[in-house]
Amino acid sequence: WDVRFPSRNCFTNVFSSNCRNRPIDLVFIIDSSRSVRRAEFEKAKEFLQDMVDSLEIGSDATRVGLVNYASTVQIEFLLKTYFQKSSLKQALARVEPLASGTMTGMAIKTAMEKAFTAEAGARVSSVNIAKVAIIVTDGRPQDNVEEVAAAARASGIEIYAVGVDRADMMSLRLMASPPHDEHVFYVETYGVIEKLTSKFRETLCEEMRSEITEDACMCEAQILFQKKVQTSIQDEVGYN
């Protein structure tokens, strides 16, 4: 008598998976105020393109949106707009700075209310899809960020704050999700901002590995249970 259970290679993903397999609804919130010079803004866009290259982009994978802000806020594209890396990177290359002002709070509010919605392409009904906002700024907000950032975090958005050059560290900490040592980053110039690409990749990979490890442990328990049941059934059959 041969008792078999549906086979499942539970540990394949433990060794072969990486952060490319973790789907995210990701919205970049980018400061393009007057303090950000044209060459610096181009460097910021290159950083965003590098980030896109490091992720698996697709309707069932990671979706990307972009909120551009200065004294006004402009949604450049939504989470549902582009599902291919090439078109997404081309859209990033076309983004133009908006000039004066640094209304960071307004930008966060816009992202929460208009970019992270089902209408915009966010997968709000799925608890397995993380909502992530990455804010890049080089200045001090000219409006209140504490309350609106708290509301955004309470809605389930994980916020990373990237400060460049003259960025106000206290404001970055008020915006970012805890723990701050994992969600607040600072670089001296836009010329070295691309170094953060690997850091963000490591952060996403760590979260992915954690999820995989938990799945593996559950899977191992399942295998042990199945073996125990199989042995019990075989003993019962042999006894009869």
UniProtKB/TrEMBL annotation:
The keyword Manganese does not apply. Gene3D superfamilies: 1.20.5.30, von Willebrand factor, type A domain (3.40.50.410). Pfam families: Matrilin_ccoil (PF10393), VWA (PF00092). Keywords: EGF-like domain, Glycoprotein, Repeat, Secreted, Signal. It comes from the Eukaryota. InterPro entries: ECM_Assembly_Org (IPR050525), Matrilin_CC_sf (IPR036337), Matrilin_CC_trimer (IPR019466), VWF_A (IPR002035), vWFA_dom_sf (IPR036465). It is found in: Secreted. Residues 25-200 form the VWFA domain. One of its GO terms (cellular component) is extracellular region. The keyword Signal applies. This is Matrilin 3b. It comes from Echeneis naucrates (Live sharksucker).
